[in-house]
Amino acid sequence: MTTAAAAPVKTPAGASANVTEASRAVILNYMDTLTTGDFDALREFFAPDATWTLAGDLPLSRTWVGPSAILDEFIPAMVSRLDPESLELEFEGVIADGERVFAEWNTRAIAKSGLPYDQHCLAVFTVRDGRIAEVREYFDTLHAKNVVFV
Q: Which listed site, 1, 26, 118, 123, has its alpha carbon 20 to 30 Å from 135?
């Protein structure tokens, strides 16, 4: 039995750059909207079957599926452990390649424990058809456990 090698898929010149720039724009717009706290507007950024995975062994570490789980359960559960008046997000930037966008930011706040929370975060976003399809978020879970989940 013989198998023929698959021919490489060729994309039109510039197609990859267009996907990269479109993906980058979605995440930059998402970040701008995130700072407004407008959850209805944020909902539009996510595909209906979008996933958000928080790595680690925190009580909130798992994969959240769908915009409702992400925006109505996961994010409020995390933010509820922080003093909302002290919450600051500082975006460091993004690096995009095709559908994948790496975003860095710092989250600073006073946790409900009274301790300062100063967290550097990295997330890998996958953007498909102009919407966020997948997010994998990484940060110092030991710091979060000792400050936010005490």
A: 118
CA pair distance 71, 41, nearest whole angstrom = 11
- Residue by residue, pLDDT tens for the chain (150 residues) are 444 444 444 444 456 889 999 999 999 999 999 988 888 999 999 999 999 999 999 999 999 999 999 999 999 999 999 999 999 999 999 999 999 999 999 999 999 999 999 999 999 999 999 999 999 999 999 999 999 999
- Look-up: residue for tokens 């995440």? 27
**pTM: predicted TM-score of the whole model, two decimal places:** 0.87
Interatomic CA distance for residues 91 and 107, integer angstroms: 9
Closest CA to 91 of 105, 110, 70, 103: 105
Would you say how long the chain is, in residues?
A: 150
How is residue 106 written in tokens?
Answer: 């710092």
